[in-house]
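Please, is this right?
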Amino acid sequence: MTQTIGIIGSGLVGKAVARLAIAAGYNVVISNSRGPSTLSTLVNELGSKARAGTVEETIAAGDIVTLSVPLATFEKLPANAFAGKTVLDQSNYYPGMGEFRRADLDAGELTSSELMQRHLKGAKLVKGLHNLSWIHMESNARPAGHADRTTLPIAGDEGAAKATVAGFIEAIGYNVVDAGSLAESWRIEPNTAIYFWRYAPKVPDGVSHEEAKRIYQQRGEPVSPQEARKLIDEAVRPSPIGGTLEGMPQVHVDLFLEQASADTIKQ
């Protein structure tokens, strides 16, 4: 029986997950905070293996439910609906964006995924598919055995859930390494060596802006399972904790704004 991926969040990340899942043969149910009627254009683009639902319908339908939403929205998620569900947490802590900041996260008393797990008490939560942009999530995906296939980390407290999520990530185009428990997931969070930049291509100095955009949308150099393991094992907990937009290349910002504007026009 074909599995269904429930995707909460229809932004750039949620759309990338949906496209990869469908290409790998999964069914998809996708939702957002505005309701299924706002997703008709997207569902038509995704094709017959996709449908829109409410957040609750998406959770109920998903064999795996992805949280393709900002961490700041975690308290809006219907916690009781997740009981027994395998949940793929793609959220990250970016305290410099907006007004969402927590002293317990800043102090390292718990990781962002431990916070999410605490809210979704009955869920089996796995951190993963969170450490590369929507652009490179699609451009870096490669079939099993491909020489350029790259490796992504996961973390979680429940072995069967980690195996389920690993199987999904492998099916959509990546090797997987286990980074440990949710308490250890800081090793794969923003500002660590395996987060974001390692998966993005380097744009040479002196190229035109259009050429920079073209280059930036290509795949990054592949990360082997051995390199991923080394980056995880040698990680030092960042201080301060949390991601920052400082140093984000202008080309990334421009591509984000262009895509967000195009999506607004479609709606």
